[in-house]
Amino acid sequence: MNFKPPLTREELRAIQDRNLYSPDVRALLWEVKRLRALALYVDQLQRIVGTLPGQQGDVLESIREQLRNEPCVTEFPRLDSSS
Questions:
Q1: How far apart are alpha carbons 22 and 35 in whole angstroms?
Q2: What span, in angstroms and rounded, lies between the C-alpha atoms of 6 and 4?
Q3: Would you tell me how many other CB atoms lie within 10 Å of the CB of residue 59?
Q4: 79 pLDDT exceeds 90?
Q5: Coil, strand, or helix at residue 75?
Q6: CA 80 vs CA 2, 46, 53, 67, 83: distances in Å
Q7: How confident is the model at residue 48 (pLDDT cuts 50, 70, 90)?
Q8: Which of 23, 39, 62, 82 minimizes the number of CB atoms within 10 Å of its CB?
């Protein structure tokens, strides 16, 4: 399925600012926030799992590929692993 590129935090903030009094937009933005949090949990989980064999590994790699370009993952601050 083809989707439009994901929205960044700044783009979502701009949508919010243009629609301050819309309860529908506010509800949608809360849903986006919930789903972005879920994506961050999935990202944490996939980092812990390491590698898996066979079809499970293929599914995990597909998830990793999709997460690589998710703004909520790339925008999230990470500790430097060399510290």
A1: 20
A2: 6
A3: 11
A4: no
A5: coil
A6: 34, 18, 29, 19, 6
A7: very high
A8: 82
